[in-house]
Amino acid sequence: MTAPTDEHLLAAHLDGDSGAFREIVSRYHKELFQFVYRFTHNQSAAEDVVQDTFTQLHLSAASFDTTRRLKPWLFTIAANKARDQLRARSRRREVSLDAQIGSDDQGQSFVELLSDEGADPTEALDDSEQRRIVRDVVDQMPENLAEVLILAYFHRFAYKQIAEILSIPLGTVKSRLHAAVTHFGVRYRALAQQGDPET
């Protein structure tokens, strides 16, 4: 039997099926936590944001347009809640990038996104040093670029979905993602070469 769609579950929730909302939470709790944690780098803060996200979904469910997909709307709520939380904490954003890009273990890393015709400065670096440099680079990226990069490469959202989540035009998503990858590539190579004893 085919599992109900997110949208059907939300409709069932509105019709009084208490199990339907629990199923939505079960489907997305882990992925939302990972998304928020990459910005907060704080487990407690990420859990708070995820809880607030599902609370907001519950309160606003009746206003959802069921002809649209639920997942991008859920991530929109989470992104807004995470921004609010970071502003309230008044601290620099921290992004955990220890995991591979993508939702499975076969995803590529940010290092693999970079094309370099010359020698690879990462060859002299161990994995922990690479992770530290990646984290440092993304920590220093403007928030608007980091958001697009994380949504595109960690969570594999399509451009149109990212546009919905961030409430920006499709063309802006494409230009920001291009700028983000370029920014990341330049800064990563510079930091990696500084750490390479051969250079």
What does this molecule look like?
The protein has 199 residues and is an all-alpha fold. The protein has two domains: 94 residues, Orthogonal Bundle (Rna Polymerase Sigma Factor, Chain: A), CATH 1.10.1740; 97 residues, Arc Repressor Mutant, subunit A. It has nine helices and no strands. Helix 7 packs across helix 9 and helix 8 crosses helix 9. The longest helix is centred in the last third of the chain and has 25 residues. It is elongated, with a radius of gyration of 19 Å. About 15% of the residues have low confidence.
| Percent in helix | 55-70%
Our estimate of the beta-strand percent is under 5%
Average predicted local confidence, pLDDT = 78
CATH secondary-structure class of the largest domain = Mainly Alpha
Helix tally?
9
User: What is the CATH topology of the largest domain?
Assistant: Arc Repressor Mutant, subunit A
CATH homology superfamily of the largest domain: Winged helix-like DNA-binding domain superfamily/Winged helix DNA-binding domain
The radius of gyration is 19 Å
Domain module tally? 2
